[in-house]
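pipeline: protein-struct stage 2 | run 1193 | NADP-dependent oxidoreductase domain-containing protein
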Amino acid sequence: MGRPAGPLSAHLPPLVMGTATFNTQFNPDPYALPTTELVHRALASGVSAFDTSPYYGPAEELLGRALATDYVRANHPRESYRILTKVGREHASSFDYSPEWVRVSIKRSLQRLHTEYLDLVYCHDVEFVSPAEVLQAVRELRRIRDEEGTIRYVGISGYPIDVLCELAEMVLRETGEPLDAVMSYAHFTLQNTSLLTRALPRLLEAGVDVVPNASPLGMGLLRRQGVPIGSQGDFHPSPAGLRGAIQKAAEWADSQGERIEVVAIRYALERWLREATEAGASGPPPLVPSAGIEKVSSNRENKPVHGRLGVSVMGVSNVGELNETLRVWHSILDGLDTAPASASDDANWSRTRRQQILTIAQGIQSILGSEWVDYAWESPGPGFVNSLPESHLEAKAKAGSG
């Protein structure tokens, strides 16, 4: 397949289903989740991109199993959806960006996902390794893209936005080719908007085509019930002070007749969709109604409605969460300035709701105050040491000898 003719932004849709939730960090037993049903319903609703990673436990396997069913093969040919995965991070404290392991990881992902090619591959959580390691991994991914054709686009992902910007600038400077995508998470939310205010201008200057915003709930921080607790226990790196402030804000939102997670999802999805268009995508947004969704856009054709739209990655664990996400998404699309005239009632409702959300968001941010608005936790945390287990080294040696 080789290097694609057009930019990533022409092929990626603005809403991507994330699968980090198919993981023991977020759920006690990922195998008990209705993952195949979720993927099938997402596809039937027009969601045409899925983000995963080897680091997300069984997520690649579960996603691949869902995509390999007779239903998907009969109704959704491979070219109709995008698969996004990652290389480099294997476990919480295990990173391998070597060209040898990049090759192993790509082959393994192709097998797990039952596909002949990957649409986008990120170097995962780049802040945990050196810039030199990131550069060699990017070069190897591009070699695979150009010589083997099993990768279409290459990007990086991570948490600290300054590191992401520096690495994007380095890749352009050292290779003469910009990254196709740079994804951060929990950096455009109710609590932290620095991906837009600080990072986006630098990433655009570095020639990055698409900047997806992942985890609009801040890895589950912006929820009334607090951070999710899976079988790995409390993994969330946020400090107690921030959690306490979020709890106070959630209680205030309750008093206003709102749930903080509902406000957070709509706030992040809508603002990023509207304000990150320069680094957005123009693939078809999901506009097909899903079972259980009462309010959907009246534009039933699966066509772009606004050119480039800011890209968001949204993870779900059950059908109710999927339907709620799509309901909000459809309502946001209804309120776009280019929404069709036949959707005027829905458009008016959506625009009114947008103002309500912005008002509630301002109240929440005032409760968080200057101490916690735009606060970012340290990543990696103090004392981090990269440690590759013996099993990883054995697998790498076996692959090299084979």
